[in-house]
Amino acid sequence: MFILKLLLLDILTCLCFCGCVARNTLKQGERFNSSDLLVSQNGAVTLNFIKQEYDRDWDGKDFGFYLAINYTVLLNETRGDLWGHPIWLANRQDPIADESGVLIIDETGLKITHNGGNPIQLFALQSSSPSPTTNINLVLHDSGNLVLQHANSNGENITLWQSFDFPTDTFLPGMKLGLSRERNWSLSSWLTPYIPAPGAFTLKWEPVEQRLGSAQRQGFVDEW
Predict the structure, then answer these.
(1) Does residue 171 fall inside a structural domain?
(2) Is the separation of the CB atoms in 109 and 213 below 8 Å?
């Protein structure tokens, strides 16, 4: 097992220092498919399509493909509880049936196209407002945050969308839980240990009680 870890570390290190292979940015007009990989600058996290169970019944298991952020082998020792568990999923409620998923940035925004139906829109550019339509990139940060940003004429990067605003079941440094004018940040458990669809429990801010609380489908459960 130790040798396997070293081999994986060597492979990832080579990828991180070979600019022609590893990258942390998806540029507008590029296609990111099931065989591609984004690696954050220090190699802490990766973005790629993974195959994951999404249903289970008497007839067996059904599997789908999800766009996921994962910790790498570099953090296996310090983040052991999350090793192999995605820390974020773009389409946890919309699994893709096959390997046809493609992440793109086009004139409509950020989306995942696939053979099974309508695109999965992660961020839509508003045609009625002066939204930027060029110089848009998607960057995977070492924090685990996936950020869609626009470089304006002054060279400043303006955040248009970020995965930290749409947490799944994992709370990371830099994330928020609570309410704002535009957001309601909360965490929701997986349906089962293997199925990433939202499950029975949600951790969210209760505005009346002014505290964090764990809510269950059948009612509120006070655990704080």
Answers:
(1) no
(2) no
